[in-house]
Amino acid sequence: MPRTLTVPPILVFILLSVWLVAPADAQMVPLGVRALSPDGAPAVGVEVGFANWAATSIDLDTVFSSVTDERGAIEVPVPARRTALWLVLARDTASGLAGLVVLPPDAEIGEPLELRLDKGVYITSTVLTVDQAPLSGVRPELCLVADTYAWVFICPPSDDEGNLRIGPLPAGVTVYLDLPPHMQHLAVQTDWPSSVNSPGIVLTAGETRDLGPVTIDPDGRSIEGVVVDADGKPVPLARVFPFEPEQPHEPAVTDEQGRFFLVGLPAVGLVWIGAAHPARGLFAAMEVDPDAMPEVEVVLHPPVTAAARFLDEEGRPLADMAIGVTALRRQKGAVFGSFPEFPDVAEPQTDANGVVAVPGLVFGGEYGFVGDADGLNNSRTPPVIFVVEEDGPIDLGAVQPQAPIRGVPRQQ
User: Fold this and answer.
1) What is the pLDDT of residues 352-399, one digit of tens each?
2) Domain 305-399 superfamily per CATH
3) Residue 118 neighbours by CB under 8 Å, 6+ apart
4) Which side of the chain, N or C, has fewer Cβ within a 10 Å radius?
């Protein structure tokens, strides 16, 4: 889903949108919108908001800040030439009506856009802690999909009783609802239609859909342990952190005995953690279960080099071929990615013999190599997926189409 900045109130938002999608000297033209009630009469006093597809995470508290006049109309300046879709939303909270219309980038600005309102839809839920206490101030992200394009909005917060009531929203569009990114890993139980793993829901006019409660562990789980080197000696001042790219996390730092205490971990499931002492050139990655492992020992190792020889279908070396290198984690196959504590891993080319050696791999980490024959990310060879489980150089052997994949099999 597209995500950029949270926008300010509508006039500032319009100016920002114009700057994003049009040159500074772009000609501005008036865009008229005429809102109609279900019976075709002018919809007077209706709130109208604009959402440019170039900006998302739009605040529902501020986007509806224009109001139709006695003719059911409003007018705003827009660039004559646009490069992004605009979503025009309207709602009448008193009567529970809502509607939308999409303005394509190539649409000519002429007659006012007709925006017909219908009975709106509402989404309700309750946010609770693991102790079943209400949690206020939680602002979910609402994703609306119209004409195959998605707009993400920040919803009003849960009240003192933990209750959420979102709407009126336009009927007939696909809706997703997520916790804010910094809280998603703290969810213990939720039936929300998440944009991550749900097809979304489509609500009919006049419907109120209760999504049930979402349970959050505000503190997350924790784990403690000790960081040692390959000789079993404690490593003070090592940094320990979870692989949660969407939730920035302050690393724990080991004390003089190499001990650490890491908090704020995801509320459910296994967790991948990393540990590093960059000054000593020692690193590690491992999967832990905070519920079943009261204490863990993390063993740091120097970075490892892995080599492979890439061949074509007839066994000839694939020389000067770019090799894509991906750092993975076994849990869900997600990228554990670029963490400043870990060494940078370059994406090299094969030599004249089709051989490539990739240094800087972290002990315990899972990696994938793939041959990119034309430099356009078109895979020429099957992916080689392996786990770094030894200190010395790793020889992955020959890699060629239709050949068995060498290396440590990926664990599911």
Assistant:
1) 999 999 998 999 888 888 887 444 445 667 778 888 988 889 999 998
2) Immunoglobulins (2.60.40.10)
3) 38, 97, 98, 99, 170, 171, 205
4) C
